[in-house]
Design goal:
The complex is a heterodimer of chains A (397) and B (244). Chain A has one domain: Formate dehydrogenase/DMSO reductase domain (Formate dehydrogenase/DMSO reductase fold). Chain A has 15 helices and 1 strand; from the N terminus they run αααααααααααααβαα. With 397 residues, chain A is an all-alpha fold. Chain B has 244 residues and is α+β, with helices and mostly antiparallel strands. Chain B has 7 helices and 10 strands. Chain B has helices at residues 6-34, 64-73, 114-118, 144-148, 182-186, 192-199, 216-223, and strands spanning 49-54, 87-94, 100-106, 124-126, 132-134, 155-156, 175-176, 205-209, 226-227, 239-242. The longest helix of chain B is centred in the N-terminal third of the chain and has 29 residues, at 6-34. The termini of chain B are far apart. Classes of the chains: A mainly alpha (397), B alpha+beta (244). The interface between A and B is large, with 50 and 56 residues.
């Protein structure tokens, strides 16, 4: 194929993808409009399951947006050139995912029109209010970081700003974990283990997203990622998957040890219907063990296996978040320990939840926002990683 | 120089006292009997409103407090998972002894309310007199307070509301809960559930000022064994239960 015909074709593909992304975003906005007009009655959420599918999507994207910065941090804070070449892409992805996640979170509010109220009234004891500052701050520090990397005369600042980004995102993910860790009365939450668990989860999920985007970009540009770099980066993903498994296991084992939590654990891990299935088959097997096999089994060195492993990690993260957020609310609150409880408000009952189309579309709309920002910015801002062969060899060796 | 007319002076003095008394008395009486607050005066931190619920008097199957609450606050009374319920009757059965109890459950008006701590905009707040409220103009509908409440006391308004009581504004997309009938308290009346329970002859709910050692509620709490729900959380709710 001639060069200009490839360019024309490539351009056509690009606009087709932008149109597809815009359509997903439009559907998400339409869903939000329906929720705004009719109220949350058209969602599956209710007074028992108050956070549903939009929160699964939003929290995935927010956690991954912090984790994807890991690539940049390894480059700037720990000085690894292979990762440094990927810092711009990692920063762009972070902004894209954060924008997607926050779009979903904001449009799911009962009164999204009052966003200015949230921006101007801060209750300083609320971890939600802290997060409003942390999220908007991340946009700012990552944007500055990108500037220091892309503007040559600002290059010397890229390392110190990289440090600030590193600290900021660790604090940000701590804040996201604390949203749940600070819930004193719910069996599923209220654990100091959650913030570090969220940090490790962010490493795995962010790197998985990075792998998928990086591989797509290389395929698009008909380039092949150096096998040594791929090996290094996929091994890191494997390490993060094991780290996440470790924290999830520690969280459940602690709960299992407390007699008062055994009912909840039995529900989540054994007899809670959909939730144990999602946990064991979705998160543990498909989202962790299978990707580990694809990453570490000898002979599976091709980039495609890493992409499949990464997609499985993302799938598993949705399963885990569904179990954590929705399963955690479905199990009844222990208001009267030692008593069997019943009431018209579903006390003592497992709450039911069926996600509705509008809330799924809203979540997908957030993914669409992240996709659009990514695809447009990688085209506009030449962010394809450029590895310097000699330094790369030194580094990898 | 003439001697002062003492009779006239005494008359004037007594007349002034009677006149002043007549002028002040209606206000004093109003204050004394009704404890109402004039409009524009801030709630006092000297008062802490609370309730003592006697589960021995509360009858299983009686729903009068719930019905009265729904009527007072313009709630539909529906019990779908998406319907708002500010107060509900809870039936309890001790897992070991089999002893049963019935009681009304609503916002417990904690001294350290988790809903107030977590609210990002400060829409959830505690009034000086201990009543926990939601500012309907400031609530953005994030539902974090519902996640944080240990008593499942809050409801989210899932659909447009009609037939509202002008005293109790509600709005789609915001969170709400028992406000202890704050509009009635400010008029010097008791909450609707308390009145309904008394009308039904149960008198299971005693309402009053927990800070006043002479109030009936304080005297009762001082003399009989009462408990707070989830006392282990140390939130010091203003609602207490007897016979639990």
């Amino acid at each position: 194929m001639q060069r200009d015909s490839f360019t024309r074709l490539e351009s056509r593909y690009f606009y087709a993808l932008v149109a597809a992304g815009a359509m997903v975003v439009a559907m998400g906005l339409f869903a939000a409009h329906l929720m705004e007009t009719h109220g949350h009655i058209i969602t599956g959420m209710n007074n028992q399951i108050v956070w549903g599918m939009p929160h699964v999507f939003a929290i995935f994207m927010i956690v991954a947006s912090s984790g994807v910065l890991n690539v940049a941090s390894i480059g700037s804070v720990f000085g690894k050139p292979v990762y440094k070449a990927r810092a711009p892409l990692s920063s762009l992805l972070s902004i894209a995912l954060l924008a997607g996640g926050l779009t979903v979170l904001m449009l799911d509010l009962g009164r999204p029109d009052r966003i200015i109220v949230a921006a101007t009234n801060y209750n300083l004891t609320s971890v939600f209010a802290w997060n409003v500052l942390l999220y908007s701050g991340l946009f700012a520090v990552v944007a500055i970081y990108l500037w220091t990397m892309m503007e040559q005369r600002m290059n010397p600042w890229s390392k110190p700003v990289g440090f600030i980004v590193f600290a900021w995102r660790i604090i940000l993910t701590t804040g996201t974990g604390m949203i749940f860790a600070f819930l004193v009365a719910r069996q599923a939450y209220g654990s100091a283990l959650l913030p570090p668990m969220f940090i490790v989860m962010s490493f795995a999920w962010g790197l998985a997203v990075f792998h998928v985007v990086q591989s797509s970009m290389y395929a698009w540009n008909r380039k092949t990622l150096d096998p040594l770099i791929l090996k290094r980066m996929k091994n890191l993903l494997g390490l993060f998957i094991i780290g996440t498994l470790y924290f999830v296991a520690a969280y459940h084992l602690t709960n299992l040890y407390f007699a008062k939590q055994s009912g909840f654990e039995r529900f989540i891990l054994a007899d809670g219907g959909l939730y144990p299935w999602l946990f064991w088959a979705g998160y543990v097997f498909l989202g962790s063990l299978l990707p580990l096999l694809l990453i570490f089994y000898p002979g599976l060195e091709k980039a495609q296996y890493t992409v499949i492993a990464s997609l499985l990690v993302i799938l598993g993260s949705f399963a885990l978040l569904y179990v954590f957020i929705i399963g955690g609310q479905a199990y009844p609150l222990s208001i009267f320990p030692g008593f069997e409880v019943s009431s018209s408000f579903y006390d003592g009952q497992i709450a039911s939840y069926t996600p509705s189309m509008p809330e799924i579309l809203l979540g997908l709309g957030g993914i669409g926002v992240a996709f659009l920002i990514t695809i447009i910015s990688v085209r506009v801002l030449n962010s394809l990683p450029h590895d310097i062969p000699d330094r790369r060899k030194q580094e990898v060796a | 120089m003439s001697t002062p007319n003492l009779d006239r002076r005494q008359f004037l003095g007594k007349a002034s006292a009677v006149f002043a008394g007549l002028a002040i008395a209606p206000g004093m009486l109003l204050f004394d009997f009704a404890h109402g607050r004039p409009a524009g005066e801030a709630a006092s931190g000297k008062v802490r409103w609370g309730m003592l619920i006697d589960t021995n008097q509360c009858t299983s199957g009686c729903n009068d407090c719930v019905t009265a609450c729904n009527k007072e606050n313009g709630l539909s009374g529906g019990t779908k998972p998406t319907d708002a319920q500010w107060i509900r009757k809870v039936e309890l059965k001790d897992m070991r002894s089999g002893r049963t109890a019935s009681l009304p459950m609503m916002c417990q008006h904690c001294e350290s309310p988790p809903c107030v701590d977590v609210c990002p905009t400060g829409a959830s707040f505690k009034r000086a007199d201990g009543i926990v409220l939601v500012d309907k103009h400031r609530c953005i509908g994030c539902r974090y307070c519902m996640m944080a409440c240990p008593y499942k006391a809050r409801s989210f308004v899932h659909e447009p509301v009609t037939g509202q009581n002008p005293d109790v504004p509600r709005g789609k997309g915001t969170v709400e809960s028992c406000n202890l009938c704050v509009h009635r308290i400010d008029r010097g009346e008791k909450p609707a559930c308390v009145e309904a329970c008394a009308k039904a002859g149960h008198r299971a709910i005693l309402f009053g000022d927990l800070n006043d050692p002479e109030s009936e509620i304080s005297r009762r709490i001082h003399t009989v064994a009462t408990a707070q729900v989830r006392a282990d959380l140390m939130l010091n709710p203003g609602i207490r239960y007897e016979g639990l």
